[in-house]
Write a structure and sequence with these properties.
Blueprint lengths: L1 H19 L7 H7 L18 E4 L5 E6 L6 E6 L2 E8 L6 E4 L1 H4 L1 E6 L2 E6 L4 E9 L1
Antiparallel strand pairs: 1-2, 1-8, 2-3, 3-4, 4-5, 5-6, 6-7, 7-8
Length: 133
């Protein structure tokens, strides 16, 4: 188990370092283009490209994500009873990446099959193998 966590952490830290260079917030046009192919489903207020909802993670950890009203570049992430606003940033890997800035140090990375919540200050995962549901 420790080996798997170590390998996962090393992989994510390498990806995080690769993503560190182009740390520009997505412009509204860029973000809209990213989600241009996504269409809204009837009765679904969220764009299809934004993965929101409740996530169940390893070790019984839970994360809730919802869109921030008034911003296509932000999400509201609920972790351990507190809500954090995270901003979309470009990632070299193509994964959806949101950062909470220096204050919270939180980083939420979403790939199609799962997500991970990182503590960038400490350089370690907080919630791994997060899946919607």
């Amino acid at each position: 188990m420790r080996v798997l966590i170590g390998v996962a952490l090393a992989t994510l830290l390498c990806a995080q370092q690769a993503d560190a260079a182009p740390k520009k917030t997505r412009s509204a046009a860029s973000h809209s283009a990213h989600h241009a192919a996504a269409t809204r489903k009837p009765g679904n207020p969220e764009p299809a490209g934004v993965l929101t909802g409740k996530f169940r993670c390893e070790l019984g950890r839970r994360v809730r994500v919802r869109s921030a009203k008034g911003s296509v570049n932000s999400i509201l992430l609920n972790w351990k009873g507190r809500e954090y606003r995270l901003e979309a940033v470009q990632s070299a890997s193509g994964a959806d990446r949101y950062e909470g800035g220096a204050e919270s140090g939180l980083v939420w990375i979403v790939i199609p099959s799962k997500a991970i919540l990182l503590d960038a200050k400490l350089g370690r995962p907080l919630a791994n193998e997060c899946r919607r549901g």
